[in-house]
Amino acid sequence: MYLVKYWLLLAFVVPLIVVGIVVVRRTKWPLAIGVTAFLLVTGVGITLWIREAQAWNTAKSLNTVEAWEVYVKAYPDERVDAWDRYRESATTRARKEDRLASYFYLVKNFSDVDAQFQMKQKLETSVAEMRQRWAVEEKKAEFTPSKGPHAIVLFNHAWKIHPWHDRLPLEWQPSSEENIRMIVQLAEEKTLLSVHEFVDGPPIKRFQHDLKAIVYEPKTGRVLAKKTFQNIPREVKKVEIKSITELGEPVRWEECEKWIHPAVLDGKFSN
Fold it and tell me: Which domain holds residue 9?
């Protein structure tokens, strides 16, 4: 393939140089320069077109994720359907291999919703198998702080993927089961603190929202860190808007992310 490419390039360039020399000798300089430049641009354009066509035929004949990836990176704007073929080949391989890394590749490169759903199911299954081994594994330290980022998975109280997991940067998400370094379980609690009655309006209930975060080492289930985030509502005023019936908001992701961020980068949790 490479020999054909270079021979084609020489086949265009050499005749053009010869033609340019002949034109220079028999015509005026401006015309000679114009004709030579036109022929050179045409020759280079045709050569590039042939190279792109050869790359397309190669990717089409191989029809693999790697082949299409090489093509779309080299010619991102040449053929729109190349991206469709690229995604189709990646999807086919993901379903065939049925591995977390394959679905992670789809999510990372195409933001594939179906792949994201499949990846979450794989994570839930993998962690469920890990938790079964926790009961028999010796609770010795397996996790050592080191420079990250360390791949983490966020679960809710029922050990299902937490909605906040989608907010994690892709660099923080595991690309394989073996790549999981930390498992974070987030359990939310809502506690009624008080009820305030009003003569000319509905009562207002004050709720405290707690978020308990527990970080596990995936192999042994050893607890690496714990933290409880609290969101206490303000006091009820003497005069309130009638549309307000409840005070108190859940803990925001930004508060939890500040605690998780350093741990992902260096494996150390703050109090």
Answer: 2-110
